[in-house]
UniProtKB/TrEMBL annotation:
This is Uncharacterized protein. Residues 146-166 have a biased composition (Polar residues). Residues 140-176 are annotated as: Disordered. It comes from the Bacteria. The lineage of its organism: Bacteria, Pseudomonadati, Pseudomonadota, Betaproteobacteria, Burkholderiales. It comes from Rugamonas rivuli. Residues 167-176 have a biased composition (Basic residues).
Amino acid sequence: MAGVLKIHSTTAGTLRIGHSWIEYCPIDGQSMTYGTWGNNPTGEGNGLLENAEPPTLKANATRSQVIDHEQERRLFEIIETYRQRGDQAWTLRTPCSTFAAEAWGRATGEQLVHQTALVSTPARLAKSIIEANQRDAVAAHGKMSIPSNHTPADAGNGNSKSSKQTLPRKSRSRRR
Protein backbone atom coordinates (compact mmCIF):
# COMPACT_ATOMS: atom_id res chain seq x y z
CA MET A 1 0.00 0.00 0.00
CA ALA A 2 1.32 3.41 -0.97
CA GLY A 3 -1.57 5.58 0.20
CA VAL A 4 -5.21 6.58 -0.17
CA LEU A 5 -6.51 8.40 -3.23
CA LYS A 6 -9.79 10.32 -3.08
CA ILE A 7 -11.77 12.03 -5.80
CA HIS A 8 -14.12 14.86 -4.82
CA SER A 9 -16.74 16.77 -6.77
CA THR A 10 -19.10 19.53 -5.79
CA THR A 11 -21.91 21.03 -7.78
CA ALA A 12 -22.65 24.25 -5.93
CA GLY A 13 -21.44 26.52 -3.21
CA THR A 14 -19.03 29.42 -3.36
CA LEU A 15 -17.83 28.43 -6.83
CA ARG A 16 -21.42 28.35 -8.18
CA ILE A 17 -20.50 26.08 -11.09
CA GLY A 18 -18.84 23.36 -9.06
CA HIS A 19 -15.34 22.01 -8.74
CA SER A 20 -13.67 18.60 -8.91
CA TRP A 21 -10.30 17.61 -7.48
CA ILE A 22 -8.28 14.72 -6.16
CA GLU A 23 -6.66 14.24 -2.78
CA TYR A 24 -3.77 11.91 -2.08
CA CYS A 25 -2.43 10.88 1.29
CA PRO A 26 0.65 8.65 1.21
CA ILE A 27 0.94 6.30 4.18
CA ASP A 28 4.04 8.15 5.35
CA GLY A 29 3.09 11.74 4.59
CA GLN A 30 0.68 14.64 4.48
CA SER A 31 -2.51 14.76 2.46
CA MET A 32 -2.29 16.92 -0.69
CA THR A 33 -5.03 18.12 -3.01
CA TYR A 34 -4.62 18.61 -6.76
CA GLY A 35 -7.05 20.45 -8.97
CA THR A 36 -7.04 22.47 -12.15
CA TRP A 37 -8.34 26.01 -12.10
CA GLY A 38 -9.44 28.51 -14.71
CA ASN A 39 -10.39 31.03 -12.03
CA ASN A 40 -7.65 30.49 -9.46
CA PRO A 41 -8.98 31.40 -6.01
CA THR A 42 -5.52 32.60 -4.92
CA GLY A 43 -5.15 35.00 -7.84
CA GLU A 44 -1.73 33.54 -8.70
CA GLY A 45 -2.49 32.19 -12.15
CA ASN A 46 -4.35 29.20 -13.49
CA GLY A 47 -3.57 25.58 -14.23
CA LEU A 48 -2.83 22.65 -11.93
CA LEU A 49 -2.62 23.81 -8.34
CA GLU A 50 -1.74 21.99 -5.14
CA ASN A 51 -3.72 22.52 -1.94
CA ALA A 52 -5.70 25.40 -3.49
CA GLU A 53 -9.15 24.07 -2.56
CA PRO A 54 -10.67 26.42 0.03
CA PRO A 55 -11.41 24.82 3.42
CA THR A 56 -15.05 25.85 3.02
CA LEU A 57 -15.38 23.79 -0.17
CA LYS A 58 -17.34 20.64 0.66
CA ALA A 59 -17.79 17.84 -1.85
CA ASN A 60 -21.22 16.54 -2.81
CA ALA A 61 -19.56 13.27 -3.78
CA THR A 62 -16.34 11.57 -2.69
CA ARG A 63 -14.83 8.21 -3.56
CA SER A 64 -11.73 6.65 -1.98
CA GLN A 65 -9.39 3.83 -2.86
CA VAL A 66 -6.19 2.45 -1.42
CA ILE A 67 -3.52 2.44 -4.11
CA ASP A 68 -0.22 0.59 -4.43
CA HIS A 69 3.16 1.94 -5.54
CA GLU A 70 2.54 1.27 -9.25
CA GLN A 71 -0.78 3.11 -9.08
CA GLU A 72 0.92 5.95 -7.21
CA ARG A 73 3.52 6.18 -10.00
CA ARG A 74 0.74 6.45 -12.60
CA LEU A 75 -1.02 9.10 -10.50
CA PHE A 76 2.06 11.31 -10.31
CA GLU A 77 2.71 10.76 -14.01
CA ILE A 78 -0.66 12.29 -14.95
CA ILE A 79 -0.22 15.06 -12.37
CA GLU A 80 3.11 15.93 -13.99
CA THR A 81 1.51 15.89 -17.46
CA TYR A 82 -1.05 18.45 -16.32
CA ARG A 83 1.59 20.50 -14.48
CA GLN A 84 3.60 20.80 -17.70
CA ARG A 85 0.57 22.26 -19.48
CA GLY A 86 0.87 25.37 -17.31
CA ASP A 87 -2.16 27.63 -17.46
CA GLN A 88 -3.58 25.39 -20.22
CA ALA A 89 -4.15 22.57 -17.72
CA TRP A 90 -7.65 24.00 -17.34
CA THR A 91 -9.63 24.92 -20.47
CA LEU A 92 -13.32 24.97 -21.32
CA ARG A 93 -12.81 21.61 -23.07
CA THR A 94 -10.73 20.15 -20.22
CA PRO A 95 -11.96 21.66 -16.94
CA CYS A 96 -11.28 20.47 -13.40
CA SER A 97 -13.67 17.51 -13.77
CA THR A 98 -11.63 16.21 -16.71
CA PHE A 99 -8.40 16.34 -14.71
CA ALA A 100 -9.94 14.69 -11.62
CA ALA A 101 -11.56 11.89 -13.65
CA GLU A 102 -8.39 11.29 -15.70
CA ALA A 103 -6.15 11.22 -12.63
CA TRP A 104 -8.54 8.85 -10.84
CA GLY A 105 -8.81 6.62 -13.90
CA ARG A 106 -5.07 6.50 -14.51
CA ALA A 107 -4.34 5.52 -10.91
CA THR A 108 -7.25 3.17 -10.17
CA GLY A 109 -8.27 1.89 -13.60
CA GLU A 110 -11.87 2.92 -12.88
CA GLN A 111 -13.39 5.21 -15.49
CA LEU A 112 -15.90 7.63 -14.00
CA VAL A 113 -18.25 9.49 -16.32
CA HIS A 114 -17.58 13.23 -16.37
CA GLN A 115 -19.10 14.28 -19.70
CA THR A 116 -22.59 14.97 -20.94
CA ALA A 117 -22.81 15.70 -24.67
CA LEU A 118 -19.00 16.07 -24.82
CA VAL A 119 -18.99 18.67 -22.03
CA SER A 120 -17.18 17.74 -18.82
CA THR A 121 -18.78 19.07 -15.64
CA PRO A 122 -18.32 18.62 -11.89
CA ALA A 123 -22.05 17.84 -11.64
CA ARG A 124 -21.80 14.88 -14.05
CA LEU A 125 -18.69 13.61 -12.27
CA ALA A 126 -20.43 13.90 -8.88
CA LYS A 127 -23.35 11.86 -10.22
CA SER A 128 -20.96 9.19 -11.50
CA ILE A 129 -19.15 9.03 -8.14
CA ILE A 130 -22.45 8.60 -6.31
CA GLU A 131 -23.52 5.85 -8.73
CA ALA A 132 -20.19 4.03 -8.28
CA ASN A 133 -20.49 4.26 -4.50
CA GLN A 134 -24.03 2.86 -4.68
CA ARG A 135 -22.87 -0.05 -6.88
CA ASP A 136 -20.18 -0.85 -4.32
CA ALA A 137 -22.72 -0.74 -1.48
CA VAL A 138 -24.99 -3.17 -3.32
CA ALA A 139 -22.07 -5.49 -4.10
CA ALA A 140 -20.94 -5.45 -0.48
CA HIS A 141 -24.36 -5.88 1.10
CA GLY A 142 -26.39 -7.79 -1.43
CA LYS A 143 -29.30 -6.70 -3.55
CA MET A 144 -30.74 -3.36 -2.53
CA SER A 145 -34.35 -2.59 -3.32
CA ILE A 146 -35.41 1.02 -3.72
CA PRO A 147 -39.14 1.70 -4.11
CA SER A 148 -40.05 3.54 -7.32
CA ASN A 149 -41.11 6.63 -5.38
CA HIS A 150 -37.74 6.74 -3.62
CA THR A 151 -34.75 8.66 -4.85
CA PRO A 152 -31.34 6.95 -4.66
CA ALA A 153 -30.28 9.59 -2.13
CA ASP A 154 -33.05 8.36 0.17
CA ALA A 155 -31.75 4.79 0.21
CA GLY A 156 -30.89 3.76 3.71
CA ASN A 157 -31.56 7.11 5.36
CA GLY A 158 -35.11 6.49 6.48
CA ASN A 159 -36.65 9.08 4.14
CA SER A 160 -39.00 6.60 2.55
CA LYS A 161 -42.08 8.07 0.90
CA SER A 162 -43.66 4.64 0.64
CA SER A 163 -46.17 3.37 3.13
CA LYS A 164 -44.80 1.50 6.08
CA GLN A 165 -44.99 -2.23 5.90
CA THR A 166 -46.42 -3.86 8.98
CA LEU A 167 -45.06 -7.23 9.91
CA PRO A 168 -47.38 -9.74 11.54
CA ARG A 169 -46.88 -10.06 15.27
CA LYS A 170 -46.01 -13.37 16.76
CA SER A 171 -48.86 -14.74 18.74
CA ARG A 172 -47.98 -15.16 22.35
CA SER A 173 -49.60 -17.82 24.38
CA ARG A 174 -50.18 -16.76 27.92
CA ARG A 175 -49.73 -19.15 30.73
CA ARG A 176 -52.48 -19.19 33.24
